[in-house]
Amino acid sequence: MRSTSLRWDASRGWNPAPSSWPVSPQLVLYFGPGELLLAPSGPLDELLSRYPQAVCAGCSTAGEILDRTVDDRSLVALCISFSSTRVRAESVAVSDAAQSGAAAAELGRRLAAPDLRHVLVLSDGLLVNGTSLTAGFRASLPAGVHVTGGLAGDGTRFARTAVGLGRQIGSGSVVAIGFYGQHLHVAYGSAGGWEPFGPHRLVTRSEGNVLFELDGQPALTLYKRYLGERAAGLPATGLLFPLCLLDSRNAPRGLVRTILAVDEARQSLTFAGDLPQGQYVRLMKANGDALVGGAESAAQAASGPASASPASPASADRFAVLVSCVGRRLVLGQRVEEEVEAVLAQLGGGLAAIGFYSYGEICPSGLVHSCDLHNQTMTLTVFSEDTSLPS
To answer: Which of 285, 315, 347 is the last residue of a domain?
Structure first.
């Protein structure tokens, strides 16, 4: 396996120059601001024109990651050439959140094969219900095939996200990339660092990912009471105070849910994933040190026995896809690169890293599900090949 990192910015253009790009990678992953991805004859067009035979996929972001750096105005790409692994990708259009589960099920059916090892998903971040999406993949993919990835971002604007596969780039798409072959090793990890506080609140009225009432009170009114003067900045300020979703009042752990939109008329909050009636939520908060520690924990999970497959040879070339939540970036501020550095320090050398800040992260949850929607986590997937195995 070989990989080459590329970056474009307005001041320097592509670095390295296109004349030194790899000849024929099988997979090209890219991330950047929506306006760059959608610009006609822009830098992405140059990348796609160079590699018409490769699987070229990517999405818009709330910040792009390349190796140890985080930026908002660049287009980053990673060109990967595998020794034995095959890759193929499929895309499905989604115009409404209610279609999310069916879209994932269709993608799972298209990618399923006896030698499928892993699926990487890039999804629209505003038109898709991440809970339904992950359920659809769990129902349609073969046993033992895990899914990681994330929901595209749009900074703190929450206006439009874009996902691309080949020349098809725009809103309302879910792209799934399948990795095939016995030589591939995939490891993953996901962790947050957020701390619950305040009372447990019962979800008394909700519809899917739209929350109407907590403890019989209008959800938006109650939430604004917690935020105080920060409520004027919703939905962006809601990223600083996500909710922890608990199966029961005494559950030791839960899934984090973050706000995508508010509706003043209905006094409701829309989240990236479902908040079922009868479950409980608590408000969460964090500081920079806690979030960096959470990122390090995610990397430890991807390095240890809880990862998806045996550890790859230390000498193998590897690449990692990092997906972290936009809310973490807002809390970390100028310290944002510290969580990326913590991940890479834990994973060690011989590794190329690419990723983005998202509206939701996809990763297995413990040993129960092959994938779940997470919010406000650092989620990473590490890919490597062991060519010592017989073909």
So the answer is: 285
Q: Rounded to two decimals, what is the model's pTM?
A: 0.89
pLDDT digits 0-9 by tens, 330-367: 999 999 999 999 999 999 888 999 999 999 999 997 65
Query: Is residue 372 located within the same domain as residue 355?
Result: yes
Residues 153 and 14 in one domain: yes
State phi, psi for 127 to the nearest 5 degrees. -100, 0
CA distances for 212 relative to 218, 263, 266, angstroms = 6, 10, 8
Q: What is the CA radius of gyration of the chain?
A: 20
Other C-beta atoms closer than 10 Å to the C-beta of 338 total: 18
DSSP, res 74: -
241, 226 contact by CB (below 8 A):
yes
Residues 6+ apart with CB under 8 A from 163: 57, 58, 59, 60, 91, 122, 123, 124, 152, 169, 170, 171, 173, 174, 175
Neighbour tally for 171: CB within 10 Å: 21
CA 277/CA 272 separation, integer angstroms: 16
